[in-house]
Every structure is written in C-alpha cells, then in structure tokens.
Design brief:
By secondary structure, this protein is an all-alpha fold. Helices cover 62% and strands 0% of the residues.
Length: 173
C-alpha cells in the first residue's frame, strides 16, 4: 500500500457505517492504512481520519487513530479537529471529542462547549474531559454554567470532578 492508495481508501470511507461483522474486513484494511500513516506521516490524512469514525469502536481501531495524529503538530491538526467536532455524524463527534483532550488548545473552547449540549451523554463526557485539559480560566465558568442544566448523573460527576481539579490547580501558586 502506498500513500495515494491509503488516501483513496479514507476518502471512500467518510465516515464508516456502524460496526457490523460485514465491516470487519474493511476495518482490517483501515488498520493497515493507520499503520501506513504511522510509518509514513502525510498531513493529507488528518481530516480524512478525523471524519472517518462511524458509530462503535471500529473493532478497537478507532482508539488507535490518535497515535497517527500525534505525529503532526497542533497547528496541523487543530483546524481539522475544530471542523470535525461540528460534524453531523455522532461517531465523528464522539471520537474527535476524545482526541481533543490530546490537543488542548483554547481554540477548541467553542466547539467543545457546543458539544456540552449534545444529546449523547458520552459525547458530553468526552467534551468535559477535553475541556478540563485546556489551560484557560473560562473553562470553570463554562463547566459551572452547564452543571446547572445537566441531568445525566455520570456527566454531572465528571463536571464536578473537573471543577474540583480546576480549583485545586488555580490555588497552586
């Protein structure tokens, strides 16, 4: 496999459909593409990987895409990550909100804050985690404001944990 073939594969799978047994062979090829770009980084793959996530775990491969993205600078990844966080596809929003925690940057504040209103509580949890990694004083206000409206007990617990951690860090000189 070369980079052109790998890019074409990703372009043809934007995003993947829900995990099914029938998709297992395609996901195996997706993993081969991941390994290719791990060994031969090409910035063309960044938006393609970020928009490839279907619903499910990709048979364990989706978690590994972050390793490829870590080969690139924050400046290369952020514009594509910001766009992907606004995707209409649940799988893309979910996995990109997880990836956002590894690229903590104030420019992610707006799209992650928007995800705090996502109907999927798992996406809201991932957004809280990603926001808690960003060093910006506005995070405490954002999390405090959403805490008042949140109804899911897991999300509430995560927000409270993030707020407690933020207050401890703010107290350390």
């Amino acid at each position: 496999m070369n980079s052109a073939q790998a890019i074409m594969f990703l372009k043809n799978n934007q995003p993947f459909s829900r995990d099914t047994e029938a998709k297992f062979e395609v996901i195996k090829k997706y993993n081969d593409v991941r390994v290719h770009f791990l060994n031969h980084p090409d910035p063309q793959c960044i938006p393609l990987f970020l928009n490839s996530f279907g619903e499910g775990s990709g048979f364990g491969v989706y978690q590994l895409i972050e390793d490829v993205l870590m080969k690139f600078s924050v400046e290369q990844v952020l514009p594509h990550l910001i766009t992907a966080l606004k995707s209409e596809h649940t799988g893309v929003r979910y996995w990109c909100s997880h990836i956002a925690a590894s690229f903590p940057n104030p420019s992610l504040l707006a799209p992650l804050t928007h995800l705090l209103r996502d109907p999927d509580p798992d996406i809201r949890c991932a957004a809280v985690t990603a926001l808690s990694q960003i060093e910006d004083d506005r995070i405490i206000g954002v999390l405090t404001g959403v805490l008042e409206k949140e109804e899911d007990p897991d999300v509430i617990d995560l927000i409270q944990e993030a707020l407690n951690e933020s207050k401890i860090e703010a107290a350390i000189p």
